[in-house]
Write a structure and sequence with these properties.
There is one protein chain. This protein has 403 residues and is mainly alpha-helical. The chain has a single domain, classed as Up-down Bundle (Sodium/glucose cotransporter), CATH 1.20.1730.10. Helix content is 76%, strand content 0%. It is built from 15 helices and no strands. Helix 3 crosses helix 14, helix 5 runs parallel beside helix 10 and helix 6 packs antiparallel against helix 7. The longest helix has 47 residues. It is globular.
Length: 403
């Protein structure tokens, strides 16, 4: 199969739209510096605490709904040893946002903190806080690598290009607009990205369902529920593992800096709480299309498709089942839209992780530990350099893993 230049052009147009939005938002951030009572570094990290509720809902949702979430939902439902009953992500993310909104927003918002590490440094000292930063940094870099690698694999399936090319271009775009506008660029590009995800993923669903090669899994599920592989089973001995995974995802995200970055970017804790509850409602809605695609893929006889034999699961490609299904069960123009939606999901999570780790480095390490007399401009410079370095490390790891 030759490289699909029309598809690449379509994805390129999408990237240009995202980059243009980021550049526009960076100019807005410059205007906010003059109106905002906070410092210029706070404008970069928390948007001058002046984001609207509407934009905040978009950016909060887009932060959680990433490439790993979308690909993972489809993979777990398609996997015959797991199935829908093990698709914990949508439930856990709702749980995460509701717990965070009910119990954690007001205390951290009332102290006007800038990062999640601020209360730890205040309580235990600057050095201890700096040590706690290390696992957070590693987690952000590995997360960026993970989701960029997922995008590289997806684009390579549909467009037949080397994964490293899509990883490099996606990372460059995310780094560039994050570098230019900080949280403002991240938040406003999230509005575009979430819109692409919402429209693009749901647009793919009817084409997947009416494909001549996909089985009518809804009728089969009603008539013989216990036999459908995509539903899965939860054995008694697996309940402990199921609960463990639910708690890991459902509570683990509460300690994520990107969550508090959005919470602290809103003027009041009441509005921040509203943002969390709205995002909790949107996350499952964006997860449903990938669950449906995984179920259809599990009910499809791949011998009758252009994919042929053996099946994706037998070839060890269950993790790429979503782009494979888009390519072989949808018209080409729909598969391109689906890849664009996934690219939007990846970039919306990557930019959040980049700004998260860079905020730690600029404020909690450079200003609070290394150079306490640092000027605001020097803090912003450190944040921007950190965005580039973290982006390079994440992209490099993604290229190594996908190469």
């Amino acid at each position: 199969m030759a490289t699909n230049w029309l598809g690449l052009l379509s994805i390129g147009v999408f990237y240009i739209i995202i980059l243009g939005t980021g550049i526009w938002a960076s100019r807005k951030s410059k205007r906010e510096e003059k109106k905002c009572s906070g410092t210029c570094s706070e404008v970069t990290m928390v948007g001058g605490r002046n984001l609207s509720v509407c934009v905040s809902v978009f950016t909060m949702t887009a932060t959680w709904v990433g490439g790993g979430y979308i690909l993972g939902n489809a993979e777990i439902v398609y996997n015959p040893t797991k199935g829908l009953v093990w698709a914990i992500g949508p439930i856990a993310f709702v749980m995460n946002l509701i717990i965070g909104g009910l119990f954690f927003i007001k205390p951290i918002h009332s102290k006007n903190y800038v990062t999640l590490m601020d209360p730890f440094q205040e309580k235990y000292g600057q050095t201890v806080g700096a040590v706690l930063f290390i696992p957070a940094l590693l987690g952000d870099i590995l997360w960026v690598a993970c989701i960029l690698g997922a995008l590289g694999g997806t684009v390579s399936v549909v467009m037949d290009i080397h994964p490293s090319m899509s990883v490099g271009i996606s990372a460059a775009v995310a780094v560039l607009y994050t570098l230019m506008g900080g949280l403002y660029s991240v938040a406003y590009t999230d509005v575009i990205q979430l819109s692409f995800m919402l429209i693009g993923l749901w647009l793919c669903v009817p084409f997947i369902l009416i494909s001549p090669h996909s089985a009518n899994f809804t009728i089969a599920a009603v008539s013989k529920l216990h036999q459908e592989p995509w539903i899965g089973k939860l054995e008694l001995e697996d309940i402990g593992c199921w609960i463990d995974e639910l708690l890991l995802l459902g509570i683990g995200g509460i300690c994520y800096q990107a969550f508090y970055q959005r919470v602290l970017s809103i003027a009041t804790h009441t509005k921040a709480r509203t943002t969390c509850f709205a995002a909790a409602a949107l996350c499952p809605i964006l997860g449903i299309p990938s669950l449906i695609i995984g179920a259809v893929a599990a009910s499809t006889n791949w011998n009758q498709t252009t994919y042929g034999s053996p099946s994706p699961y037998e070839e060890g490609k269950a993790g790429m089942i979503l782009p494979i299904a888009l390519q072989h069960l949808c018209p080409f123009y729909i598969s391109v839209i689906g890849v664009g939606a996934l690219a939007a999901a990846v970039m919306s999570s990557a930019d959040s992780a980049l700004l998260s780790s860079s905020s730690y480095l600029g404020r909690n390490i450079f200003k609070n530990v290394i150079y306490k007399q640092a000027s605001e401009k020097s803090i912003v410079v450190v944040i921007k350099v950190s965005v580039v370095l973290c982006g390079l490390m994440g992209a490099g790891l993604a290229m190594i893993s996908s190469g």
